[in-house]
Amino acid sequence: MTRASVLEPAPVERRLRLLSCNILAGASVARYSEYVTRSLNAVLPGRSKMDNLDRLAEVLPQFDVIGLQEADAGSLRSGFLNQTRYLAETAGMPFWSHQPNRAMARLAHSANGLISRLKPHSVLDYPLPSRIPGRGALLAQFGEGDNALAVMIAHLSLSAPARARQLGFIGELLHDFPHAVLMGDLNTEPHSVEMAQLYAKCNLQPPAQPTPTFPSWKPRRALDHILTSPAIQVDKMWALPQAFSDHLPLAAEIRLAAHVGGKASHGRRR
């Protein structure tokens, strides 16, 4: 007598966990005065930076897609270490990419970074408009066509007029993606005047409730963001309690249709 096998129904949705983290090149700051008293940390490597990166690497496997800002691309202050690659490999995450931006001789070289459990179909780099060059946005696509999940990682300027131009530019880039995520340190609150430039040009939505992330020792301002389009359901958004820099990492758990975003893979991208 044979027993008929019962086929499991295909899942109708998938869940992903996202993390956005400004890592300040591995440096930790516990009060405003340390920007001055520990200013040498900005240009010198040290064991404390490596310990900080290792603590962060322990957290990363909980997430599927991670966006980094102020990762060092390999300069004096990091001991010439590509911090995005180090975090991905230490955490055992299969895919990583980075976008080096502002280089200050060999002292510091900031970058946006992508670490992922999903295999990107493409990763594109865009310089952001600014009077002072050196800001950029990294756009990763998981899957193709209308089934693509577009994830943009950005670190915006301190100047409100520059941010307005940058957010308008990002909105144009994300305009045609039905499933889009913008994550990063945008240096502004979600309902600021300049954020209106973004919402007007694409279907990204402000969060239901702002999540303060800065400063990490007493969070008062929601400067870090994970913004999604309406086709993506945000089930939860929270700041991690662990501080790895002067910003708390921002996390989100999202739901989207099962056919969106490509497939998980164990390969490696550089």
Kindly report the CATH topology.
Answer: Deoxyribonuclease I, Chain A
Please mark out the parts with pLDDT under 50 across 5 or more consecutive residues, or reply none: 266-270
Q: Quickly count the domains.
A: 1
Q: Compute the average pLDDT.
A: 89
Give the DSSP E fraction (strand runs of 2 or more residues). 25-35%
Order of helices and strands: EHHEHEEEEEHEHEEE
Reported for the largest beta sheet, the result is: 6 strands, mixed
Radius of gyration: 19 Å
Number of strand elements: 11
Query: Roughly how much helix do the residues carry, as a percent range?
Result: 10-25%
> What general form does the structure show?
globular
What is the CATH architecture annotation? Answer: 4-Layer Sandwich
Distance between the first and last residues' Cα:
53 Å
Based on secondary structure, the structural category is alpha+beta
